Automatic annotation (TrEMBL):
Keyword presence, Cell division: no
Domain of life: Bacteria
Name under which the protein is recorded: Secreted protein
Pfam family, one: SIMPL
Organism encoding this protein: Balneicella halophila
Keyword Signal assigned: yes
Biological process per Gene Ontology, one example term: DNA damage response
Length: 229
């Protein structure tokens, strides 16, 4: 019984080795395909920092939050677009009052309309809130575009294999290996491709302009195709 088990094991091992050698002995071609897609941002994220000691009338943090919400409602910006990024307290010592605690809180506000930014910033400044910065830009359909670029890169790899083999009278067979390589994320997690410029008109009114580049998605696919017999 033990001899039979050993024989079965040897035969299985031999069959596996023969199959592996068959795979290794196949004629194949290895190529890479890459693709790039420019995507226009449709989401803008602003960082809003509220600090009790930054306002002259020493309004509380709750009052400052209420002012931000009021401005958002005035401009028809959904209040759900405002989220807390972080909160803490600063303590300052004043010799005539002892210890004084000033609360501060950071928010992220998502906008889907760049044309409203100027009006938003002017309304916030009227409330004494001016610590507003551009955090990042994004696109709401980013996952869809990622898939599109990957498909484009895969097709580019297949096309390259086709014309290279056609040059020597051969044809592409089935794929043996496909790998995604060298993914380069779009530059939307910082403001390196975004500028928010402030100027004033003849009446002294502040104007705000956004200048940002399209987001760039790049993918590379490595593929190994069998050379058809």
């Amino acid at each position: 019984m033990k001899r039979i088990a050993i024989l079965i094991l040897l035969l299985t091992s031999l069959a596996f080795n023969m199959n592996a050698q068959t795979q290794d002995n196949k004629n194949y071609i290895e190529v890479t395909g890459d693709a790039e897609l420019k995507v226009t941002p449709d989401e803008i994220y602003l960082s809003i920092a509220l600090n009790e000691k930054d306002v002259k009338d020493r309004r509380s943090l709750d009052e400052l939050e209420g002012d931000v919400i009021a401005v958002m409602r005035k401009l028809n910006i959904p209040t759900d677009n405002l989220s807390i990024a972080g909160a803490n307290s600063d303590m300052e010592r004043a010799f005539w009052t002892g210890k004084k605690i000033y609360a501060r809180k950071n928010y992220i506000l998502k906008l889907t309309n760049a044309n409203i930014i100027g009006q938003l910033l002017r309304e916030l400044e009227k409330k004494g809130i001016s610590n507003v910065n551009l955090a990042r830009v994004d696109n709401s359909q980013m996952e869809k575009y990622r898939k599109e670029v990957k498909i484009m890169a895969m097709k580019a790899a297949k096309d390259k294999a086709n014309y290279l083999l056609e040059a020597i009278g051969e044809k592409v067979g089935k794929p043996l290996l496909i790998q995604e390589r060298n993914y380069r994320p779009p530059f939307y997690r910082n403001t390196s491709n975004v500028m928010m410029m402030k100027s004033a008109d003849a009446n002294g009114r502040k104007n705000y302009e956004l200048d940002f580049q399209d987001l760039t998605l790049k993918y590379e696919i490595f593929a190994r195709f069998e050379i058809a017999e």
